[in-house]
Amino acid sequence: MIQSIVQKELLLVLKDKGSFFWLFVLPVAFIVIFSSIFGSAGSSQTYKINYYDADQTAQSQQFIATLQAVPGFELVTNTDDELDKQLVRIKDGKQSSLLVIPAGYEEQLSSGAAAEVELYRDAADDAAAAPVAAVLEGVAKGYQEMKLKAGLQELLQSDEQVNALLAPSLVVKEIKENAQTADPSAQITPGYTVMFVFFIMITMISNFMRERNSGMLSRLQGTPMKAYHYLIGMWIPNIIVVVIQSTVLLTFGKLVYGLEIGNVFAIGSLVIALAICATGMGLMLSMLVSSENMGIALVQVIAMGGAIVGGLWFPYEFLPKVIQTIGQFTPQYWALRGMQDVIVRGATIGGVWMHLAILLGFGLICLLIASLRFRNFAGKAAS
Hints:
By secondary structure, the chain is mostly helical. The protein has helices at residues 2-15, 17-38, 58-68, 83-91, 105-110, 126-156, 159-166, 185-197, 200-214, 216-221, 227-257, 264-288, 292-309, 321-327, 331-343, 353-379, and strands spanning 47-53, 73-77, 97-101, 118-121.
């Protein structure tokens, strides 16, 4: 009896074009789009510095050359528009920043006074202008160090003594862990895999509502079939579909973006635990909701809300502390952290046992609620 229901449901799910779109086509599209936006492994971001040289002297050109030598920054000047027109562009929100080297820059620098440059920035777009401000601050400190070094050389007459005095008392040595695997695909591919796994709940709710409203469930109740036979038969095909879905998406990330999967057994265990969790929640919702539309609305809240607070869209560390705390109560958080522990940090099955236990716990609790609510669900079946 269970085998017949499993075969029937598996064929229905795999043949349904809507389910195929939600579970396979859309997540692949999201992975491709966001991987293209944030770049694949090894890519680097270049920040553009718009500048206007009103001084047009050797010193101003030297300052520009110093900025051009900073890796990751590209200097661009607009010789067609006057300064006032370019400032209007910032006020109108059409440009994030403009570096202005004012007339008299070389004269100020030669006199020994502090030479000023002006950075106009759109206050509504601080994130785009912040790297430019940071690099200008670094260049300014470099000029200060050169001035200080020149003064010390006049007093000490020894380059060794000057260099000893200017040597920093504290040096920060940056050591990158997991540098080979920590690229955008390590966030994007598992993140969207976890997110779209939960859309299986829409398929489950639709199938249960179809069975109840069409009279199929009433006819099945007239057979020797037990309630748990029916629930298991409707549940197992969706687990299989989620395992196939996750395998396809992770394999796509590996083949197209070079994602390092890590320990296959650990990833496989997480996929199965996630499948049990998501389908268990789908089974519970199917027994609780009064209509298909209500169920779809709840799935959207669970899938999208969990994606936000669970760190599927943005790195978890970037989220506010309150959101981080809330996220730890979602299965999405534990699924993604477990996958990233395997993919980025090389964890094995022993390193993700807690993630597996929590995901399975979510799923089993939902299955228990679903089994308790089945009698009420079946009582509403059309005859």
